[in-house]
Design a protein that fits this description.
The chain is an alpha/beta fold. The chain has two domains: about 220 residues, Rossmann fold, CATH 3.40.50; about 230 residues, 3-Layer(aba) Sandwich (Rossmann fold). The chain contains 20 helices and 14 strands. The protein has a seven-stranded mixed beta sheet with strand order 3-2-1-4-5-6-12, with helices on both faces. Helix 4 runs parallel beside helix 5, helix 6 runs antiparallel to helix 9 and helix 8 crosses helix 9. The longest helix has 26 residues. The relative contact order is 0.11.
């Protein structure tokens, strides 16, 4: 049984009443052995049961602590399944969850909500861990209340700037709070948002709770490895800081670009998608025929919108002539196609190099194209600005354009976020591709389009994109490319980009193995008994477990 947020909206049930009713119903059903109101994965886990060691395990090979602060289903099920798999490999595993210490978090606003989601989060993670046979530890039971009260008193009346400089012991906790504040407010310019002061204060106070709670838990559980999502949200950021201070190894993960895929890394936050060391090792090695075929097939699948994590429309306009007509694009002149980012997303935060941010970049590009009326600029605004209910951006490109460029230069076209024009079809119009740090730049490079990168993308400066070191050279490189002069040979660019894409999409990004995502945020376990998680059953699962236990590369 499942009652979703979509059901609540259709029935127009107030969110607080919905949360309270669903929690009470879940607890009542669970008491009689019918879990599943919080997700069918709970019913699955009840049937699977805990791992049973058939021989005495002796001293654990490693002690692994999984950080699961929230009831984000896919992430929670993935970590819980890994904990079961590692238990079968003689590791001692535990899960640490929040328990409601955050005044505000990425999931809710406890100090403001009529009925905050804290009890639901705790119940979900507690039930999932209990059914899986994994020890659960609650931050709320280990946090230092005196330290939280002291921080609360010290933060009163502070400006945003002073709160950002706030320290808790050796931790620059004010700086740690910024990514979560931006993500929660859906803006990269958090300091301009009216809710910024109260949210920044809330995340800092919650961070103090996590800092003191994690220290107590690590002292007691003594983990060798701490595994967590992302690494930049406040809860995980403090878990990382405490673990690092105690010289404990950390593993981060982030969902991959495809559904039911995952990117894992050692000591580097997941959203950075850093594969630099492996790329340095294999960049000079040509792809074999089957490898080249596999990455081309994968890129074709992405263009068709298959297996994507988020789908913005049921169908899109792909007819090139129709798009030219709709956007009034001359078939003769050079065209620059610019793709914006969702700048508050953790994968896009702090990617600035030449520019202070995305809007500074847009200003430069618009001014450059405004002086060259024979060129055309198409701005593809990221669909996620408006197309994901509950995650709409506070700062929107269209609003910014109306404020600063009204009217737009005559040679500029804007594809709105709710406009179902296929982003890949737009690439076919491009003389030059312009990106800040979006992975679409890698996909354009694979297609042979010259790409000028403005920020610190994970694929920039790898030999197949244009990465100007100064603003003057940024303008000059765009000008040269729009006039048909390219310094990178097209075939060599494609070859190198395909090598990188093969490593990134097919080797460093791995299938989750233990779960599938048949619908958004509703994961499903792919094993029916824990014996299917034993060593040797799944090559990719063995790679992931070896990486966590032994520090091996997460690479197939």
């Amino acid at each position: 049984m499942q009652i979703s947020e979509q059901t609540r909206q259709k029935l127009n049930i107030p969110v607080g009443l919905f949360r309270m009713g669903r929690l009470l119903a879940h607890r009542a059903l669970s008491a009689v052995g019918v879990p599943g109101l919080f997700g069918p994965e709970l019913a699955q886990m009840r049937r699977i049961g805990p791992p049973v060691l058939r021989e005495p395990s002796g001293t654990p090979a490693r002690r692994v602590l999984f950080v699961i602060p929230r009831a984000w289903n896919t992430h929670a099920l993935f970590q819980t399944a890994l904990a079961q798999a590692l238990t079968l490999r003689n590791a001692k595993c535990a899960i640490v969850t929040c328990g409601g210490v955050m005044p505000i978090c990425e999931f809710g606003w406890a100090e403001k909500d009529f009925y905050p989601p804290c009890s639901g989060c705790l119940t979900y993670v507690k039930d999932l861990a209990g059914l899986a046979g994994i020890e659960l530890i609650n931050i709320a039971e280990h946090a230092d209340n005196a330290a939280i009260q002291k921080a609360t008193s010290e933060l009163k009346g502070l400006s945003v700037e002073r709160m950002e400089d706030y320290r808790f012991g050796d931790f620059p906790i004010g700086k740690y709070a910024i990514p979560s504040v931006r993500w929660r407010l859906r803006t990269s310019q958090h300091e301009l948002h009216p809710h910024c002061p109260v949210m920044l204060s809330g995340f800092i106070r919650g961070g103090v709770a996590w800092a003191t709670g994690m220290k107590s838990i690590c002292d007691r559980f003594n983990p060798d490895v701490v595994v967590m999502l992302n690494g930049l949200f406040m809860e995980e950021r403090m878990a990382w800081a405490v673990a690092k201070a105690q010289k404990r190894r950390c593993v981060f993960f982030e969902r991959g670009r495809d559904a039911a895929s995952v990117f894992l890394s050692h000591e580097v936050p997941g959203p950075r998608y850093d594969i630099s060391s492996k790329w340095s090792e294999i960049s000079a090695t040509p792809l074999a025929g089957p490898e080249r075929e596999s990455i081309r097939a994968a890129m074709d699948r992405r263009r068709r919108g298959e297996k994507v994590v988020e789908k913005y429309w049921d169908s899109t306009s792909t007819d090139l002539n129709a798009i030219r007509t709709q956007l009034k694009v001359d078939s003769k002149g050079p065209v620059g196609v610019l793709y914006t980012n969702v700048s508050w997303d953790t994968a896009m935060q702090d990617r600035d190099t030449l520019f202070t941010g995305m809007f500074d970049w847009l200003t430069r590009v618009l001014n450059l194209f405004g002086k060259r009326p024979e060129w055309t600029l198409i701005i593809r605004v990221h669909p996620a600005e408006t197309q994901l209910p509950g995650r709409e951006s506070y700062d929107r490109v269209e609003d910014w354009l109306r404020k600063h460029y009204n009217p737009l230069p005559a040679n500029v076209r804007v594809v709105r976020p709710n406009q179902s024009v296929d982003s890949y079809a737009l690439m076919n119009l491009a003389t030059v591709g312009l990106v800040y740090a979006s992975t679409v730049g890698l996909e354009m490079a694979v297609s042979g389009i010259p790409v000028v990168v403005a920020g610190a993308a994970h694929y920039s400066n790898k030999g197949f994109t244009y990465d100007p070191p100064s603003l003057e050279q940024y303008d000059a490189q765009i000008t040269d490319l729009m006039q048909g002069t390219r310094s990178l040979d097209k075939d060599e660019q494609v070859d190198m980009a395909e090598r990188y894409a093969h490593l990134f999409f097919l080797r460093r990004t791995l299938p989750m193995t233990v779960l599938d995502e048949p619908t958004s945020d509703r994961p499903r376990a792919l094993y029916s008994c824990v014996d299917e998680l034993l060593p040797g059953k799944h090559k990719v699962l063995d790679i992931v477990c070896s990486g966590i236990l032994n520090g091996a590369e997460f690479c197939s």
